[in-house]
Automatic annotation (TrEMBL):
Function of the molecule: The beta subunit is responsible for the synthesis of L-tryptophan from indole and L-serine.
Family: Belongs to the TrpB family.
Protein name, per record: Tryptophan synthase beta chain
Cofactor names: pyridoxal 5'-phosphate
Gene name for this UniProt entry: trpB1
Enzyme class: lyase
Catalytic activity reported: (1S,2R)-1-C-(indol-3-yl)glycerol 3-phosphate + L-serine = D-glyceraldehyde 3-phosphate + L-tryptophan + H2O
Domain of life: Bacteria
Amino acid sequence: MKALPDTTGHYGDFGGMFVPETLMAPLRELSEEYAKAKADPEFQKELDGLLKDFCGRETPLYFAERLTEKLGGAKIYLKREDLLHTGAHKINNALGQVLIAKRLGKTRIIAETGAGQHGVATATVCARFGMECVVYMGAVDMERQALNVARMELMGAEVRGVEAGQRTLKEAVNEAMRDWVASVENTHYIIGSALGSHPFPMMVRDFHLVIGREARKQILEKEGRLPDLLVACVGGGSNAIGLFHPFLDAPDVRMVGVEAGGDGIIPERHAARFQGGKLGVLQGTKTWLLANDDGQIELTHSVSAGLDYAAVGPEHAFLQHEGRVEYTYATDDEALAAFKELAQTEGILPALETSHAIAYGIKIAGSLPKSDIIVINCSGRGDKDVATAAKHLL
Ligand SMILES: *Cc1c(COP(=O)(O)O)cnc(C)c1O
């Protein structure tokens, strides 16, 4: 497969740069600086050093022995991104981008956040590099994720509540974009997933490739061969593309992305873009999204704020189109049941986002032979979701 995206950010028919004219020059400047950084061994060395000593890489590839035995089928391994600093994969990207912002001479960082995990990762790297930090967050999410709001504020970030529309992630992205159009001179916008205009989906993916590269090396060490199946949850798609991409050249490795099925595939009650979605443009990119017949973006729902978004990253749209990656969904109830199962068989509380991937792993493992190997990306830990899980499960 040839390296994608092309120079204007297209993955086949998907992706691109659908932004206001004022952002075209800064996005081009960002693309150029990123290309230079990528080719600069000093940049890579600084990034690798911080990933190791500040963030705690490499993360373990853990054999979930009791879960495997209980399900009686394929061996299940978990890639432990939940053990990373700040509790999820998000810091891989936030760290990479803050280093790019520094190279660009920017002094101020803005970000959007849903569950607050990306906001926390961004506030963390801003504190580490002495950057001013403003995080946009829907007012509803601020209530649901009060702990993460406090974490950001304690690290010196300003959290700006967004009262527009559904008051969740989509509106927070709109506000961040509005800020950026006015402040791009001194400000870099750290997008939290493999979404938005080129070069963001590519750059965010690249900063998460470390997940799949490590997993590939680790499974070869432990099992002497590549896995049969990779599973990851898909919000914007950053943890999934980070795990999947380094295996795309291995035709025998099957890959499944798991979206948020909410209350089931009923309009406005889920966030599974590949089920009942359509092709369109949202927030800078052409991809699969949830919209009604008039083209209005639909309301979405998921028990996990981090998967509750109307569009999927354009590279996933491409991989689905090519038939290279399969996409399915888990409902809120299935995710909550998986949360409990992993907690009680392995002593790991996964994030509710992650629980969607675990749910699919649990569903499929028993029907696969014991000689098969599954790697599930454990994208984050569930501390932030304890109140929600307790409400449903206790
Ligand atoms: C944000 C988040 C996700 C969803 O984002 P992707 O970009 O799809 O990875 C998944 N898991 C956790 C733990 C998250 O914090």
